[in-house]
Structures are given as structure tokens and as C-alpha cells.
Request: fold
Amino acid sequence: MVRIILIGYMGAGKTTVGKALAAELGVPFYDLDWYITTRYRRTIPEIFAQQGEEGFRELERKMLHEAAEFEDIVLSCGGGTPCFFDNMEYMNSLADTIYLKAEPEILAQHLKMGKGKRPLIEGKTPEELEAYIQESLQAREPFYSQAKYTLDISLLDTFSKIDECVKIIKDMLKV
Ligand code: S3P
Reply:
């Protein structure tokens, strides 16, 4: 049975690498944000606007407990998922957890490619974004570093770089 959970900051490449990894392993891929959106029929920005971050974190926890119970999956969670409640401990108890670790500059570059989906960084100038990433990454690192495995991520701007990550993960996990 393969149950892999990818964690890491927004823009680390969890969804990109997760999809490629799942395809390579021939198992379904789930993205926790997508799962929440589908189950509640609301976008992440809508949930934040209506229920605040606190409300979102409750839903996120509940949906993590649903999605992480599936067998033979690759699941990518949200950047904040490991940092609330006992989520990190829970994920470690039932899955191979992998921290996709990237420098703030790389995260900022990836985030510029996917604008408008992330309420926590909406409307920030490039300078504000970098400062926010630096600060919150530092606060989140103690949670992320509890993952069973860590993979250093550089700029994911070609398919071959994504494939390389998949290969490293397969070797690391021996799957
Ligand atoms: C968040 C990350 C997002 C999403 C929400 C909050 C965070 O997921 O869950 O906007 O707290 O870092 P991604 O990491 O997939 O962008």
C-alpha cells in the first residue's frame, strides 16, 4: 500500500510534483484544497471570506481526516495544514510524509505563476510577498521539519525537473 502525503509552503510544488508522482506510481492523486472545494462547493477564497481562517482550518482538518484515510494515494495538502491542531502527528501516523523544501525566492517565483487562488497572499506587492514568506516560513519550519522525508526543491520550470523530483522520491521511499 502506498500512502504519500506532500507538505510544504505555498508554491513549493506540492500539486505539481504530487500529480506527476501519482501518475508514475499509477495511484490516484488528491489535492486537499481541491477536495475541500469539491466537498463544500466553495472556493478557498470564499471559505476564508465567509468563515475566516479559523473556520477554514476546522474544515481543512476534517477533510484531511477523510482524504488521508484513502489507501494507495498521493495527497498534497495546503501550506498551512501541518501547522494546525495535531495534523502533522496525524499524517505521520498513517503516511509517508515528504516535506518539499524551497528557498523563499523559489516560492515567490512559483507563486507569481498561480495568482488569485491564495487569500493569505492576495494583493501583496513583490516586496511584501517576499517579507511575508520569510517570516511565515520560519514560523512553519518546525512543523514541516517533522515530515519523515525532506526533498530540496529548486525552480520547477521544466518537465524534466519535475520528473527528477519524482525519481528522487521513488528512490527515497523505495516504491
Ligand atoms: C494556505 C495554503 C493554500 C490553501 C490556503 C492556505 C496556507 O494551499 O490551503 O490558501 O496557509 O499556506 P497551497 O499550499 O496549496 O497553496
About this structure: Strands lie at 3-7, 29-31, 73-76, 96-101, 149-152. The chain is about 55% helix and 15% strand. The CA atoms of residues 4 and 64 lie 13 Å apart.
